[in-house]
Design goal:
By secondary structure, this protein is of the alpha/beta class. It has three domains: 200 residues, 2-enoyl-CoA Hydratase, Chain A, domain 1, CATH 3.90.226.10; 134 residues, no CATH class; 57 residues, OB fold (Dihydrolipoamide Acetyltransferase, E2P) (Beta Barrel), CATH 2.40.50.140. It is 48% helix and 19% strand. The strands form five sheets. A six-stranded parallel β-sheet has the order 10-5-3-2-1-13, with helices on both faces. Strands 14-15-16-18-17 form a five-stranded mixed beta barrel. The protein has a three-stranded mixed β-sheet with strand order 4-6-9. Helix 2 packs parallel to helix 3, helix 10 packs antiparallel against helix 11 and helix 11 runs parallel beside helix 13.
Amino acid sequence: MKKWALLIILMLFLTSGIGGARPSENIVYVIEIEGMVTAGTALRVENGIEDAVDMGASAVLLQIDTPGGLVDATIDIVKAIDNSPIPVITYVPRGGISASAGTYILLAGHVAAMSPGTTTGASMPVMADPAGAPGPADNKTISYMAGVMRGIAERRDRPVDVAERFVTENLVLTASEALEMDVIDVIADDVHGLLEKVDGMTVMVMGAETHLQTADAEIYVREEGIREQIIDIISNPQVVFILLLVGIYGIIFGFSSPGTYVPEMIGAICLILALYGLGTFDVNMLGIILIIAAVILFVAEVFTPTYGVLTMGGVVCLILGAFMLPQEPLLAEEWFRTFQLIVLGMAGTSVAFFIFGVGAVMKSRRRKPTTGIDELIEKTARAVTDIDPEGKVKVRGEIWNAMAENGVIKQGDTVKIIRVEGLTLFVRKID
């Protein structure tokens, strides 16, 4: 009887999930945009939208809290939104701002929303001058960016004249003003309230109507990866300027005092990173260049031993290059993570090998010589004649000229060899 009862309970447990509630398949993928908009931010948005599509999310939510950023990165984010096969909701959360680059991103969303008390606008481009304070860009740049803003407004059916004023007049609007002028679609206190309000809206996504179903959606917040964090740092204009200076001065100091290889190595690595930050090449090329630099440094270590200095530089380039390599769509994410772990393991092994190698070399240098004349020092010998102060001693079966250092030494006395000069041993009697 007990067995039948247990069997019935087990069947009820297994069948309870067949017609019951299942885990929600309606997912809203959240990507946070905080701080300066850089190439790392653009990469985070691009990868996030791809992940959201692969996950089967119903929409992407971009939470914007930025004072501005780089033009190229902003345009890349706008392109990513335009090419997204699923709706993208842009939202300025409570306490956030959407200035300059953030305004372009806000207006580019299929649905634009703000929290009460937030602001957007002030999108006139500025030129950063290291020699002085930043100022407005030239008219050509302002006209171009105004055209970009007008194009975004036209695609999303927002007021073109207001959008243009964001750029040409540095117009700033509060959330209520933006809603009144149809710049945004919704004002919501928080994410859950936003998803309730936009539920059922119809938006045009890549030329097709899409109905938002977000009321009971599960919220998934994307975490920033190591690769994106590194790119975010080295694409910051202030960091780029520092890397450029360190790179130039490193090369100069290296050529002015050659031999250590440290300034040249640091300068070369900093210049590579600075050139990427200046937009000379993309992130995929950066990864390839860093790995090539790592190989060059490893080979240089073999031919010009620097006791691990070049190896450490190669390890840094290898690790950075591994994280910068592109993740091809046909390669699984697990494969890419495994590849990164292998690279980190190789880097750690290289560091350990050269640490032990350098330790062995230094230990051998401290060891006393075991061959040649120097090995006779501290050895004992026997006087075969009186040494006063010159005479003869016998050591290792050989007769050597000797010079006494502490008085007369009698024949047959045991002496210690203090030093060797030419073919003469300087000895001292052992009491």
